[in-house]
Amino acid sequence: MSFEKFFNTAVSSWMSQEGPDSDIVLSSRIRLARNIVDFRFPTLFSSEEARQIVSLFERAFAHRSYREAGRFELLKMSELQPIEKRVLVEKHLISPHLAEDSPFGACLLSENEEISIMINEEDHIRIQCLFPGLQLAEALEAASELDDWIEGHVNYAFDERLGYLTSCPTNVGTGLRASVMMHLPALVLTQQMNRIVPAINQLGLVVRGTYGEGSEALGNIFQISNQITLGKSEEDIVADLHTIVQQLIAQERAARQALVKTLGIQLEDKVFRSYGILANCRVIESKEAAQCLSDVRLGIDLGYIQNISRNILNELMILTQPGFLQQYAGGALRPEERDVRRAALIRERLKMEERRKMEGDER
């Protein structure tokens, strides 16, 4: 498998699949934080210890296959260009912290990109499993089985009373972060998110932007995750999050129907204006592109737009990010150059989708 696959293909296989409630829930993610005994945590370890940990994983797991996920490839952050690391962040395969602040970091990526094992991030190991739609329980089962497989090769830092030991006290215990990525345009339009976010926080959950802590909710995409890792089982943490997500899904669907009734033609006009901008613009910034893509996706889900696959919007959400634009250009671009290329890429991709639809109709 070529390394270039991870950088040149916008949509991971899990992103192109439909999952439960995928009109609202884009993905479910389980992340497990683990550390290895006999090594100091990344906040204190030496460069030699860091290299030993990477070598350990390279020997044990690189080029090995894991079930249907395919073969693992090891990517060392020190050997990647800044644009390549940014692309991996934009695809949600590594964290911004690993890309920017981990000089001895690495990542094992599965061929289908459903599994990412970050090495020497905040902890020695961050196991990540990604599933389409609302599949938290399935993702937890997959992550737990992968966790057991890795533990067959390394000894985890574990305390009988506290659980798994981590660099940050907020991860001690299960070391589990469960999260879902949700598209919530109707709750934003009806201004309900302003009261929903504080209510969710009071339940021990947190609402973040598209790329996690400190990021903006571009295109009305929010990440909902647990904050509590100690004192609850993995299953209870996931079950609690699943319950809240189901409530958000119901609220978003109710808000969409309310908008259809109250706005009617104005809502349809908003959707098609955004589609018109995407199909015809010559210059567009990433924030405007994300908002227009959100409107168009809403229009697809409501049945206003029927000639475009929902998955094309998943692809464009990634393709229009700065890292991908520069990867395709073969080098760094100024912001204004990225805006021009972004517009051209969106126009061409929408034309391809229209041609595909016309060819299908002719058959």
Automatic annotation (TrEMBL):
Give the domain of life.
Bacteria
Residues annotated for ATP binding in this entry: 27-31, 92, 126, 177-181, 208-213
Query: What are the alphabetically sorted keywords of the record?
Result: Allosteric enzyme, ATP-binding, Kinase, Nucleotide-binding, Transferase
Listed GO MF terms = protein arginine kinase activity
Its EC top class is: transferase
Q: Name one Pfam family in it.
A: ATP-gua_Ptrans
Matches recorded under HAMAP family? Prot_Arg_kinase
Q: What is this protein called?
A: Protein-arginine kinase
Q: What gene name is listed for this protein? A: mcsB
